[in-house]
Specification:
Elements: E1 9-11, E2 14-16, H1 23-38, H2 41-65, E3 70-75, E4 79-81, E5 108-110, E6 113-118, E7 160-164, H3 170-182, E8 198-202, H4 213-216, E9 218-222, E10 229-233, H5 234-240, H6 243-251, H7 258-264, E11 267-269, E12 283-284
Parallel strand pairs: 7-8, 7-12, 8-11
Antiparallel strand pairs: 1-2, 3-6, 4-5, 9-10
């Protein structure tokens, strides 16, 4: 009798053929053995131990490769710190030198407790990071935004600039002056703090405007009495009080309020080429606008 054998299922060291009378019995037997081995409590516990041991080895290798670093461990519950230094070096941290255990007579209590952990107890604090460990509660990990203090914006330490307004276009010059008075050209610019410089404007009577603004630009002022509105053109005001033109333009580009009034005092405008601020040693105002000078 001619039989053709075509294996359909392969199990290690055993092949099941379609004409084998024990095909179903073998499949059931191997399934039961597989389930018993797979879900055996002894097998599961040993498998968990193996995985736990593998993770521990990987963690030790990572700690061995990485350099020592300090980490702030935040605990949600409040804990107390003892400020008494310990004589034993084992219980000291390499940063604070204080015990991190709960003290019976604490001197400092905090809602958020910090614990300085270090992988290498022999590590030293970098000189640039000493400020992070000055406070007993550790570094402030929620607020790292720099904000200027009073010593960062003292008026006597601020720079002075001088600019010649001859043939300079009014609006372009005023915007450049306002940027430096506001301090927007600085990396330490803070909107709510006076960080800017002092600006001196000379030859304000020779400032220029574009187009027909010399006769069409209007300046209004009111005396406070009924019908006390006075309107004059740019040309008329330049002949009468030329300093007011520059002051009016720069004031409109500064904040409105107490800060804006304080910043406006940084502007010094004079009609002639001389100014009484030689003692401040003003430097030339840096101008990046290439079209600030009127083309004749």
């Amino acid at each position: 009798m001619n039989q053709q054998f075509s294996p359909t299922l392969h199990i290690p060291s055993i092949a099941i053929y379609p004409n084998c009378p024990t095909k179903k019995a073998l499949i059931i037997w191997f399934t039961i053995v597989h389930l018993l081995i797979r879900f055996n409590p002894i097998f599961l516990s040993s498998h968990k131990k193996l995985r736990r041991h593998t993770r521990k080895q990987q963690r030790e290798q990572t700690e061995r490769k990485s350099p020592p670093m300090a980490m702030a461990c935040v605990t949600s519950s409040s804990s107390l710190f003892s400020t008494k230094p310990l004589s034993s070096s084992l219980n000291k941290t390499p940063f604070l030198g204080f015990s991190l255990a709960v003290s019976s007579t604490p001197s400092v209590q905090s809602n958020r407790a910090f614990k300085i952990c270090c992988q290498d107890k022999a590590a030293l604090i970098p000189s640039g990071q000493q400020w992070m460990f000055d406070d007993l509660t550790g570094p402030d990990v929620w607020n790292k935004t720099w904000y200027p203090k009073a010593a960062d914006h003292v008026n006597t330490d601020k720079p002075w600039y001088v600019v010649d307004a001859t043939d300079k276009i009014l609006g372009r010059l005023a915007s450049t002056i306002a940027i430096h008075i506001r301090g927007k050209n600085l990396a330490t610019y803070t909107p709510s703090v006076d960080m800017g410089a002092f600006v001196i404007v000379v030859n304000a009577d020779k400032i220029a405007v574009s187009g027909k603004k010399r006769t069409q630009k209007l300046y209004r002022r009111h005396s406070g009495r009924p019908g006390g509105m006075t309107v004059e053109t740019f040309e008329q005001l330049q002949k009468r009080i030329p300093e007011r033109i520059v002051e009016h333009a720069v004031r409109g580009m500064l904040p409105k309020g107490a800060l804006g009034r304080a910043l406006f005092n940084h502007l010094k405008v004079y009609t002639g080429p001389d100014h009484p601020h030689v003692a401040q040693k003003p430097s030339e105002l840096p101008i990046r606008d290439k079209r600030i000078t009127k083309q004749k």
